[in-house]
Structure formats: structure tokens, C-alpha cells
Amino acid sequence: MTEPLEQRLEKAMAELRSAQEAVERTERELRQASFAVLSSDRAVRATVGPQGELTGIDFLEYKYRDMSPQELAASVLEAASAAREKMNRHVMKAMAPFAEPSSEVPELKGFELDWERIFGPGVLEKADHDTDRTDGAAPGWRDALGEDGED
């Protein structure tokens, strides 16, 4: 036996109101989000805001004094990129429930988001790098500078 149309419509409206409230909460949370990431050499900490914008750079323990301009630039770019990626993944995770179809009202299909188009192709790759490396691998910026990571 199927539900009367009025009950189905009531359910759909209740779920829509609930979804709108959840979206508003999520938007408030995301507007205040920020992430800070250390470069792999621990010389730089970059902080990004809710739209991935760079909001802070900290040069740690005066390590920058012994770095070439290219090394320092690479450390800044590495930390900023990692922080932006972290923010992008946070946004994806926060918005994922709104893209899923409704379990209560099958007519509410959810919506499809093209994360790759929004954030770029790297956002869908597995986050297999960490700024606190324990695997001994040299970070990519060292390769770009022709360094092997050994001091």
C-alpha cells in the first residue's frame, strides 16, 4: 500500500527544511574553517582560510636563514598547497551528505558535484602524503631543486 500524496509531500517538505538547516550549519562552519600545514622540512607553516586563500605564513625556528631563496620558496609553496588541499578535502567531506539521495523521499535524488572541476584534478587523488613524513621519502620540491634530501 502506498502512502497518500499529502503524506509524501509532508515528508518531502520536512526533509527539505532539515536539509536547508543542515546546509546553513555547514556553511557557517566552513566560513570559519582554516587549516595550517608544516612543510616537510618544518621550516614553514602555511595557513589557509575557507576558500583556500593563504591567510598566514610562519617561518619557524629561523630555519629560513640557512635556506636559499629557492628552498624557502619551495617550502612555502609546499606548505600552502598542502593546506589548500586539506581545506578542499574538508569542504568535500562537509558537503558530501547533500549530494546523496534521500533515504526517506526517493524523489529527492541529491545532486552531483564535479569536485575535480571545482578544486582541480589533485583533490580526488588519495591523500597519501603527510607533512610529518615518517617514510624517509624526499618531498617533491627537493626533486625539483635537484636535491636528494640528505643533509
Looking at how many chains there are and whether they match, the oligomeric state comes to single chain
Helix content: 40-55%
Shape: elongated
Poorly predicted regions are: 128-151
Give the structural class: mainly alpha
| End-to-end CA span | 74 Å
Beta-strand percentage range: 5-15%
Radius of gyration: 22 Å
Largest sheet: 3 strands, antiparallel
Q: Give me the count of strands.
A: 3
* Tally of individual helices: 4
Mean pLDDT: 78
Strand order in the sheet with the most strands? 1-2-3
Order of helices and strands: HEEEHHH
Question: What do these coordinates show?
Answer:
The chain is mainly α and 151 residues long. Helices cover 46% and strands 10% of the residues. The chain has helices at 5-31, 69-99, 115-119, 140-145; strands at residues 35-38, 44-48, 54-59. A three-stranded antiparallel β-sheet has the order 1-2-3. The protein starts with a helix and ends in a 6-residue tail after the last helix. The model is unreliable at 128-151 (pLDDT under 50).
Name a few traits of the molecule.
three-stranded antiparallel β-sheet; disordered C terminus; 4 helices; 151 residues; mainly alpha; single chain
